[in-house]
Design a protein that fits this description.
The chain is an alpha/beta fold and 349 residues long. The protein folds into two domains: 183 residues, Rossmann fold (3-Layer(aba) Sandwich), CATH 3.40.50; 140 residues, Glycogen Phosphorylase B (Rossmann fold, 3-Layer(aba) Sandwich), CATH 3.40.50.2000. It is 35% helix and 18% strand. It is built from twelve helices and 15 strands. Strands 3-2-1-6-7-8-9 form a seven-stranded parallel beta sheet, sandwiched between helices. A six-stranded parallel beta sheet has the order 12-11-10-13-14-15, sandwiched between helices.
Length: 349
């Protein structure tokens, strides 16, 4: 099959969508398929084979990302499948391509865009108004696709979704005996987070918790709230830029607990990667963690409750878990099996 991934998020930016698309493409190509990626071009990234950059501009609403321009003519041969990732211009270009070429159109929900409005606008009332306007528009847009998929459960959209976990590379993410930053003399226990540093990740909650925590907290990542975190963090909190992929397993295996306060995830891939490396997760009792974090792989705390967070951290540090076994169902091979099945079903209609 010739498959086109139309995405508004891709390298050089580092996030869950970027690594998901790379993992899906690699695995699909191993199975003999041809995968093209249409993405916002960046002067900081050189395209690889079958990668097609769109002209783009810096995104004024989200630092570090680029906003692509629409495009309808492409140099690749006609696609068998159009698979769009996100509701932005790149994906809309893919949808139009699908209609023009009578090609099956698949959409995968990665990010609840409406949760980022307040971060972009900084005025809560205006962000709330934009959210009320935006949601009906996205619902209308999503209904134009033949199939819509989501990682877990049903997103708050007025249409049906098929479940398709983003896929966890269990061959890569596994316990490591290489200690992360072993030259450092950190007080134990050690808690850690890895991911974007943005408003919806609520990292200030973790920093506030750390002020009363006797151990060490490691925060890995970059993003619009990184400077603020660096400015307000206590002495037992250490921040690092995004790690090379091959160092993540060392990081996950070194920390005693993976901690997140995010309220804007669709699957929460990093916590599951930590689970695959043998590390339990502490997360707020919100979607998607109320679906993915169970007694076998971590604990949930009452959202925004520092007291309950402290209690769950103490309980988790004294508990035993079977984290790797708990995330087997999110394995990348199973996801790509489902993906191939969806593609084949749509082609045969």
């Amino acid at each position: 099959m010739k498959i086109g991934f139309f995405t508004d998020s891709y390298f050089p930016e580092i996030d869950g969508v970027t690594y998901t698309l790379k993992a899906w493409r690699d695995r699909l190509e191993e199975r003999g398929h041809e995968v093209h990626i249409i993405y916002p071009g960046s002067p900081e990234y050189s395209s690889d084979k079958n990668e097609h950059p769109l002209r783009s501009l810096p995104n004024p609403f989200y630092s570090g990302y680029r906003a692509p321009l629409f495009r309808l003519n492409f140099e690749f041969e006609e696609l068998d499948i159009v698979h769009c990732h996100g509701p932005g211009p790149a994906s809309i270009s893919g949808l139009i391509y699908g209609y023009l070429h009578d090609t099956p159109k698949i959409y995968t929900h990665h990010t609840p865009v409406e949760e980022y409005f307040e971060q972009a606008i900084h005025i809560k009332t205006v962000a709330g108004f934009l959210k009320r306007v935006y949601m009906p528009m996205e619902n209308y847009y999503l209904k134009k696709y033949d199939v819509r998929t989501a990682s877990v459960g049903e997103p708050s959209r007025n249409c049906q979704f098929r479940q398709l976990p983003v896929g966890l590379n269990l061959e890569f993410f596994k316990p490591s005996d290489q200690e992360f930053k072993k030259e450092e003399n950190w007080n134990e226990p050690i808690l850690g987070y890895s991911g974007r540093m943005s408003m919806e990740k609520n990292l200030k909650e973790i920093v506030d918790f750390a002020e009363q925590f006797d151990g060490t907290v490691l925060l890995v990542g970059e993003g619009p709230t990184r400077q603020k975190i660096d400015r307000i963090k206590p002495e037992n909190v250490y921040t690092f830029d995004f790690l090379p992929r091959d160092k993540l397993t060392d990081f996950y295996s070194t920390i005693d607990l993976y901690i997140t306060a995010s309220t804007g995830d669709t699957l929460g891939l990093s916590p599951l990667e930590a689970n695959a490396c043998g590390t339990p997760v502490i997360a707020p009792e919100v979607f998607p963690f109320n679906r993915t974090i169970k007694a076998e792989n971590g604990m949930l705390y009452s959202n925004s409750s520092e007291e309950d967070l402290k209690r769950k951290v103490e309980e988790a540090l004294d508990s035993d878990f079977s984290t790797r076994e708990a995330v087997q169902k999110y394995g990348l091979n199973k996801t790509v099996d489902r993906l191939e099945k969806i593609y084949q079903e749509e082609i045969e209609k």
